[in-house]
Amino acid sequence: MNILGETYNTTNLIVPTNEGVTAAIVAFVFVCLVFPSLVKNRQQYYAALGAILIVIFLHALGLMIKAAGFIVFEGFITAILQIGAIVMLVLCVGGLTVRDFADDMIEVVRRGEHEKEVIIPLPPHLQAQKEARVAEKDDAPRERINLTPDVPPEKPSIPLE
Q1: pLDDT averaged over the chain?
Q2: Overall average pLDDT of the 108-117 stretch
Q3: I want to staple 48 with a disulfide (CB 3.0 to 4.6 A). Which of 9, 85, 98, 142 is the partner?
Q4: What is the pLDDT of residues 93-107, one digit of tens each?
């Protein structure tokens, strides 16, 4: 009820705005400003900064426009922009492009844990040398090394009989 005695039909709507996530992203953006050597790809950094500024702007609009439909729309767009900002910040600090990131993700999903992971692939000429060494090892007869010399067993100090 307002001053004139009019009543409003209001519906309470709870939409999480993930303000803590936005605060963490903004804090990381400021860390990147203080330590610019962290940023390897500035375009991705600016994309994340733009996404967070849009999130803040949408939150301000949501405070002004109290329509339930707009609040739900704001919550959805905020979540999408926060996810995009986090991915962009990870990529800009890691020095990856979106294509590299997608290729790595597809490779991991495709291979699973069945194959041994190659951290740094060898150049072709070093790979050929490695394969030649492995082939030589497999062909050479292996010699058994006896680590325990033939020593007669000692008599036990305690008789077992």
Answers
A1: 81
A2: 66
A3: 85
A4: 988 888 888 888 887
